[in-house]
Amino acid sequence: MSQQANRPLVQAHRTARTKEIHDNVHGTISLDPVALQIIDTPPFQRLRDIKQLGCCSFVFPGAIHTRFEHSLGTYKLAGDVYEHLSHFQQAELDLTEFDRSALMLAGLCHDLGHGPFSHVFDNEILSKIPALEDWKHEHMSTKMLDYIVETYNVDIPPALLKRVKDLILGTVVLPDEHDNKRFLFDVVANVRNSIDVDKFDYIARDCRNSGVESGYSYERLIMGMKVIDNEICFRQKQCDNLYHLFATRARLYRTVYTHDKVKAVEAMITDALSLADPYLKFTETVNDPATYWKLDDTILKKIEVSDAPELAASRKIIERLRKRDLYRYCASYVKPKDCPRKSEKVTPAHIAAISKGALLPDDIAVANVKINYALGDKNPVDNVHFFDRFDSTEKYLMLKHKVSHLLPEVFEEHIVKVYAKDPAKADKVREAFEEYQRHSYDGAVHSTPAKPKKRHRSRSPTEPKKLIL
């Protein structure tokens, strides 16, 4: 079915009554009838119980926002991009209501496939199961959308549904060679340079809720967009703003997402869920939307209040978490930028093996942290085309050395963080990891000083007691 054939039905949806909600980041968001049909279903409402930042709220109390509001925000920003492009370039781009609906619904549904505690689930739990190591939440998002449409009779044309799923995956699948709208795939999941409305929303929302100052303006980036040669380009004066976007993202990773205590909590929740899985079998649901939608962050509470003896080990870890008895941070190591093995993951077995029997792998937790500008070790701005004025028809790349000499030379770093599950073994874990560094990284060691013990000042027998009023 062609886009033209779908246009009347989509326009009918757009002219129907909409609903407005207030968002603490973007203000008023208007939801069209198709979006409302999707939102008002149990599988979508499930996103209210999946925190956007996974375990970060255990360390940053304000970071309790969820995938639900992030999805609404991405929906809104996708519409803002459409409005901007249609206002300035409608004659040449021939944007339709089909295009608007596809972009906004892709923004709305792009995170339907996330599991409990967001990326902790797929990166730390499913990745350790051989049959699921290639599982991606984006693919599950498209399955969940199909399930919602079929189960709850969402009134959406098949061609529109297919385009929404393609936009979620960032897959360039165009109906025929005459469709010149490749640029639409730059809006929600941009595989060219990673500049998209998903990132605009989560950076703004995460900064607001975690207390990190945002160093860029997504509004100015949207206002500075123009399509040239079927690609979204940016006005030249927005180059610094783009670097600030990626620098803000990297700062969030360093100070919030991979905070020492956050990674300790992640390791504990990973262990608790992994120990519970043989009994609860929740990983068996990850390819079945009919059962997967019932899985969210509340699984931790279900384990905690259960009396099942099979969950005793998991409950013990959760009890430690509630009492703030976290895995003890021991040391970290920033791998040299020219290290040939910087992409290799350090495992508890590596460190235990060098301890000569003093430690077992289960005594140790390791976090292999990767912080970058969203495109591996590449500079994403190298893949961005710019233009001078809005009446320009030419685009060009801006080489980093012509922008500023103060920009980064390296765009990715690898950090290893090591923890002792039993605080009493922290010194042994620290020593073993330092020895591992000597063997693995040409003798370079980043030692982490032990925390000084608190000294209690003894009161003189003649010193009067302080009166507390």
Q: Sketch the major β-sheet.
A: 4 strands, mixed
Approximately how much beta-strand content do the residues carry? 5-15%
Structurally, how many domains make up the residues? 2
Q: Outline the low-pLDDT stretches.
A: 1-14
Number of helices: 18
**Mean pLDDT score:** 91
C-alpha termini separation: 79 Å
CATH superfamily of the largest domain: Hypothetical protein af1432
Q: Helix amount, in percent?
A: 40-55%
Number of strands: 9
CATH overall fold name of the largest domain: Hypothetical protein af1432
Q: What would CATH call the class of the largest domain?
A: Mainly Alpha
Q: Evaluate the radius of gyration.
A: 25 Å
CATH architecture of the largest domain: Orthogonal Bundle
Oligomer: single chain
Silhouette? globular
What class do helices, strands and sheet pairing give? alpha+beta
Order of helical and strand elements: HEEHHHHHHHHHEEHHHHHEHEEEHEH
Question: Which strand order spans the largest sheet, edge to edge or round the barrel?
Answer: 3-4-7-8
Short description:
The protein has 469 residues and is α+β, with helices and mostly antiparallel strands.
